[in-house]
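Working notes for the structural subgroup meeting. M.R. asked for a predicted model of this chain before we commit to crystallization trials. I am recording the input and output together here so anyone reviewing the notebook later can reproduce the run.

Input as submitted:
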Amino acid sequence: VTIAAAGGHNILLIGPPGTGKTMLSKRIPTILPPLSLAESLETTRIYSAAGKMPAGQALLARRPVRSPHHSASGPALVGGGTIPQAGEVSLAHHGLLFLDEFPEFPRTILETLRQPLEDGVVTIARSHSAITFPARFMLVAAMNPCPCGYFTDPNKPCKCSPLQIDKYLSRISGPLIDRIDIHIEVPPVPYRELRGEHNGSSSDDMRTQVERARQIQRDRFGDKSTILNARMTPKQLRKHCKLDDAGEQLLKQALTELGLSARAHDKILRVARTIADLAGEQYIRPENVSEAIMYRRLDRQL
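Returned structure, recorded in token form:
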């Protein structure tokens, strides 16, 4: 989660019911830095045009968090209408879009996320014109590993057949999975750990790590239009994500054995760069590449 927040990476949390996927997702906004003035102005314009500005507030200061239900329509999610209006993806601009029960969204609606995830904008076409809304958000999605939810739970038996699991996972297309940088499994928490006094990093600690890593990215790019690793262009990838021989071999092996796409290859490099930044490393180490590959969980199943 810290890696995703630090580099602006899209993340998919996979685990049985009750493992804290939603809680983790709700924690992410607390470790993100506040909006910059430029981001605040952009986001405020969207909310003002949509008539959704909070009463008595001139500028939005906090990053928006949008959580549409899986029954939301296509126009509600990406925008539309007779007079085109911004949808949830645009209302989440410079913020976070949380989609719980990810496979429960109709596949046709999920596919509409591909353009904003790739380009940071959404285009609504009409017969004589097309309107483009900004939609540069961080996607946080959560899902069960199977229809009953307990495929990866060591304490409860799964009731699903392999065919049912495959059908369930196929609701999310390969091209959409490609656009999600990090897929991680959220296991059940043992009672002893749940009752323990120290259950991982505090939000303050995580926020400090995120801010430090983002400062490294600002120093690296210098260009305020691209200050996050998740948004690196191919040219920037070649410049800032060079690997040594061991790292190259690891990545080559993963591409061959997992059948990863070119887009997944680039996602791994971007995530590895963020992992290195969080560790204060100037160069990407083989273990950073290995960790980034581990976060492509669904590539090993689809």
